[in-house]
Amino acid sequence: MKFIAEVYLFFYAQVIIHELCHFLAARILGLSVKKVAFGADILSVRVGKFSISPVAGGYVEIESQQSVYMNKFLLAVFLEAGPIGNLLSVLLLFFLHNNLLITIFACVGGLMFIGNNVIFFPKTDGGKIFRLFKGVKVFEDE
Question: H-type helices in the chain, by residue range?
Answer without folding.
Answer: 2-29, 64-69, 72-95, 100-116, 125-134
